[in-house]
Amino acid sequence: MSLIKRLSPRLANQIAAGEVVERPASVVKELLENSLDAGADRIEIEIEGAGSRLIRVRDNGSGMTADDLPLALARHATSKIAELDDLEAVATLGFRGEALASIGSVSRLTLTSNSADEGAGVCAFTEGRDMQVTVKPAAHPRGTTVEVRDLFFNTPARRKFLRTDKTEFAHVDEVVKRVALSRFDVAFQLRHNGRTIHSLRPASAGMEQARRVAGVCGPAFMEQTVAIQREVPGLSVRGWVGLPTFSRSQADLQYFYVNGRIIRDRLVAHAVRQAYRDVLYHGRHPAFVLYLDMDPAQVDVNVHPTKHEVRFRQGRDVHNFLFSTLHKALSDVRPGTASMPAS
Ligand code: ADP
Ligand code: MG
C-alpha cells in the first residue's frame, strides 16, 4: 500500500488558488487580464460587498464557444500558449491557464459567453465542490461575463484573512486603476454596491490620456509632472514622472509597465531611486507612470504565479536606460514646463 496519494483536482486547484487568489482584488485582476487578452475594448466591473459577495466582469471581447467553457474552467488549459517556445515571447497577459480553475475552486463561478455576433450564448456554472461543469444555452451578446459569488465560501481559513470592506475595496480600486492606466484604448467602468466609482472613456489623443492619468492619479500629479519619451534600439520608455515637489510619504503612486504589464522590480526601483537621489529628501517617494517597451524575448514574465515579477535578460542595459532617461528629465526641468508626451 502506498502512502502517497494523488490530490483530487479540486484540492489541487484550491492549493494553486492560494498563490493566485489572495483576495477579491486578485480575482478582479485575473478577470480583467482575461478580458483584455480577449481583445475587449469595453469592460464593466461590478462588485458587491467589496467583492467578497459578488464580482462581475463583463466584456465585449472574442467570447467563447460551448466547447471552450469547460476547458476555460480546467486547470492548465489555455488558448494563449501551446509550446515552450511560446513562453519565450508571451504577448498576452495570461498564459498559465490557472486563474479560472483556481477562482472556480474557491467560489461559485458562472461564465456566460458568446463568440458570435448573432445567436444566443452559452453559460457554465461551477461551485467549488466538485468542479463539475454543466453548459447550458444563455442569452449574451458577443463577449463574456464572469460572475464570481461568495469568494472563499468553502475555505473559511482564507475568508478569515479578508480585511474590512473598506480595505478590500481599496485593493480592488487599485487593481482597476493599474489596468486602466495600462490600456488607454479601453473603456472601463467600476461600480461598487450600485454606485459608479469610475467611468472611463477610451482615451486616444495625448490630451485625453493625460485626463485619464489625472483621473486615476489625481489632478495634482498631472500639474507637477514632466512628460518623458525616449527610445534607443531595443528599448523605449514614455510616461510621466512627478517633479520633486510632488514627492510622497509613501510609494503609493508608482506605476511601471513592461510591455503593458504592471510589474514590480528591484532593478527598476533602484534605477528610479538613483535618478531621484539628488532631488528628493530622504524618506520621500517619487510618483510616476512609466511604460517600458521592449522585445518580449528579452524579458521573462514566468517568474511568479501573479506575474508581477519579471526577469530582464539585459538588466544592466534596462537599468542604465531608465536611470539616464529619468536623471536627464529631472535635471532639465524648469518649473512650469510640464507637458504631454506624444502617444
Ligand atoms: P489564461 O488566461 O492563463 O489562459 P485563465 O484560467 O485565466 O488562463 O483562462 C483560461 C482560458 O479561458 C483562456 O486561455 C481563454 O481562452 C479563456 N477565457 C477566459 N476569460 C475569457 C474572456 N473574458 N473572454 C474570452 N475567453 C476567455
Ligand atoms: Mg487569465
UniProtKB/TrEMBL annotation:
One of its GO terms (cellular component) is mismatch repair complex. Residues 213-331 form the DNA mismatch repair protein S5 domain. It comes from the Bacteria. The keyword Iron does not apply. GO terms for biological process: mismatch repair. Keywords: DNA damage, DNA repair. GO terms for molecular function: ATP binding; ATP hydrolysis activity; ATP-dependent DNA damage sensor activity; mismatched DNA binding. This protein is involved in the repair of mismatches in DNA. It is required for dam-dependent methyl-directed DNA mismatch repair. May act as a 'molecular matchmaker', a protein that promotes the formation of a stable complex between two or more DNA-binding proteins in an ATP-dependent manner without itself being part of a final effector complex. Belongs to the DNA mismatch repair MutL/HexB family. This is DNA mismatch repair protein MutL. It comes from Chromatocurvus halotolerans. The gene is mutL.
